[in-house]
Amino acid sequence: MKLNKIFLLLLLSLLFIGLSYATEVSDDNTVNTTTVCVSTPGEVVHSSNTQIKEVDNRIIDQTNKKEITKQNHTKNVKTASKTIDVNNFNTLHNTLTSDTYSTLTLNIKSDIILTKNTELNTAIKTLTINGNGKTINGNKKYQFLKINSDCMVTISNLIITNCYGKYGGAIYQYNDNDLTIRNSTFINNGVNNESTLPNYIGGLYIEDVGVTAGNGEAIFKFGNGNLYIENSMFIKNMTTSKVGYIGIISCSGGSYVYMTITNSTFLKNLENGTAAIRTKNTRSNIEKSTFTGFSKAIDHYDKSLTITNCDFINNTAGAVRFTNDYYRSELEVNNCNFINNSNLNDSLYNGGALFIRPSGKYDGTYTSYDYWGNPINSISYLKITVNNNTFINNTGNNGGAIKTVITGTTYYLNITKNVFKYNKAEYGSAIYHDTYPAYNKTFTNIYNNTFVQNIPNTYNARRGAITDIGNAIITNNNDETSKYTHTIYTKGINTEISDNIFDDGPIETYISINEIGNTQYTDNATIKGKLKTNYGGTPLKNTIIKITINEKTYTTKTDNNGIFTYNYKTNTLGTNNITVTYEGNTKYAGRTMKTTFTVTQKPTKITINKIANTQYANNA
């Protein structure tokens, strides 16, 4: 009997171990057994189920706890991605504010009118919006999207119109992630900030923490990261701000902000002072884009800027302004067209098309450097390059096309292979260049450009195409056909101006005609004068002159001194009209001068000889 009890205890121990193992193998299995029957040789023993029930209860309790833990864990794991078709505002708003998905793609299937602002849920880490050509309309009250989370956003093929907000009329992004806009259009978006403080208003705004730069008219992005705008349009975006320090795209970035804009169009803004793009501390690359009808098209401050294959047309406060104070900043402007831009109201930044004022001081000390190259045994120069552009009919107070004020210590400025036509300014109708003498490690080359009829607003006398009041080296320029003074006006030091062509068209000529005194009828009248160049007075020798007298034309030639003479036998009483004409050629411009002289009657006298006495009927 005692042996049977020991045997039964061993069996129960093995059973407990098996049950425990079974519970751990599967959290989803439960034990329902309440009676265990064990057969031994000779007898059957029915054991009490009390201990087994206690074990069962413990097992079930542990299983339930594990199931609860599993359910809670499952609830916190987001679905990897989700694509949702959006046909109305409620679906749009509810999806973007939900924390259900971490990766989200929206297909906009209908035009949508906003009825409130929408802030993106922080759980969403990647957002793609396919607009399918549909329109988001803010009804001039609401912002399309506010992004405060670390989310990478891509928007394509969407029209966003009438969206308003204090920061970013259409889109506000406050993070360090990327923002990409493709094939989209922003129309009539704006900022409703009535502050009298300076504001940046624009199609896009990027700002880093700690930098004050303003608001964003259509998009406001705050922080580091990359900004890409491709094949998009920004049309008539506006602001209700009381000041004009604004921009359709405004970027004020941190250490790692890169902006790239390609194949995009920026059309007339409705408010004064608006720039298409305003950047601060942002490395920027802009290419194949058009800017029309703004105040400034691009206003860039600190960090490097590259502009390639762009058109700037009819902007009224200059096309591009590049300035810096603190960072190593370089500028490249290549293969662009600047047409009909002006800047007559800004007394400081008044280049008609392009204003350049780099003033960043570099900490390095130069041990030696060559005159026109990079420094020797020291840090290389920062470069500013304006290459292969066309400047036509731009107007400024100083610098009709380009004004440069170099105050930085280590810049190397190249203006080369550009064409300047019909630009106007008080000084420097094409280029106004100045460097501060204290900063004598900056070098400037203006070479291999073509200048055609760039006209100073006021001038009294011919003083040469190049006006230098600094110490410029001026060599090998072709200014034979130059007509106008101050085409290039330079106050710069360490400046070389060479191999430029000043082609103001055919050289102007002048005809002087000596006074012709009163002449009697049938007498000879001597018509004499001189043909020479207008500026410099060079005589044109052996040149055909046409003289028209009372609608009849005669020809003569100038002598070696440019003097022409023609003797004319008068045949018309009264005023005789003379027109002297030089018809010109490809080198010398034609000229016509007119004068008159008077032909009077010759005086007459009748004399009668004395008649002798004669008899009647004889001849007297």
Any descriptors?
single chain; 620 residues; 4 domains; 15-stranded parallel beta sheet; 10% helix; elongated
Write a structural description.
38% of the residues are buried. It contains three helices and 60 strands. Helix 1 (2-25) packs parallel to helix 2. Strands 3-4-6-9-13-18-22-25-28-31-37-41-45-51-49 form a 15-stranded parallel sheet, with helices on one face. A 13-stranded parallel sheet has the order 5-7-10-14-19-23-26-29-32-38-42-46-52, with no helix packed on it. It has a 13-stranded parallel sheet with strand order 8-12-17-16-21-24-27-30-34-40-44-50-48, with no helix packed on it.
Supply the number of structural domains: 4
- Number of strand elements: 60
β-strand amount? 35-45%
If helices are DSSP runs of H or I spanning 4 or more residues, what is the number of helices?
Answer: 3
Termini separation comes to 210 Å
- CA radius of gyration is 45 Å
Please give the share of residues in helix.
Answer: under 10%
**Side-by-side strand order of the widest sheet:** 3-4-6-9-13-18-22-25-28-31-37-41-45-51-49
Sheet of most strands: 15 strands, parallel
> What are the low-pLDDT stretches, counting only 5+ consecutive residues below 50?
19-77, 194-214, 362-372
Mean pLDDT over the residues: 79
SSE layout and pairing:
Layout: H1 2-25, E1 37-40, E2 43-46, H2 50-76, E3 82-86, H3 89-97, E4 103-108, E5 112-113, E6 126-130, E7 135-137, E8 145-147, E9 152-156, E10 159-161, E11 164-165, E12 171-174, E13 179-182, E14 185-187, E15 190-191, E16 204-207, E17 219-222, E18 225-230, E19 233-235, E20 238-239, E21 246-252, E22 257-262, E23 265-267, E24 274-280, E25 283-287, E26 290-292, E27 298-301, E28 305-308, E29 311-313, E30 320-324, E31 331-334, E32 337-339, E33 342-343, E34 354-358, E35 368-369, E36 375-376, E37 382-387, E38 390-392, E39 395-398, E40 402-406, E41 411-416, E42 419-421, E43 424-427, E44 431-435, E45 443-447, E46 450-452, E47 455-456, E48 466-468, E49 473-475, E50 488-490, E51 495-498, E52 501-502, E53 509-513, E54 519-520, E55 524-533, E56 544-549, E57 552-557, E58 563-569, E59 574-582, E60 591-600
Parallel strand pairs: 3-4, 4-6, 5-7, 6-9, 7-10, 8-12, 9-13, 10-14, 11-15, 12-17, 13-18, 14-19, 15-20, 16-17, 16-21, 18-22, 19-23, 21-24, 22-25, 23-26, 24-27, 25-28, 26-29, 27-30, 28-31, 29-32, 30-34, 31-37, 32-38, 33-39, 34-40, 37-41, 38-42, 39-43, 40-44, 41-45, 42-46, 43-47, 44-50, 45-51, ...
Antiparallel strand pairs: 1-2, 35-36, 53-55, 55-58, 56-57, 56-59, 59-60
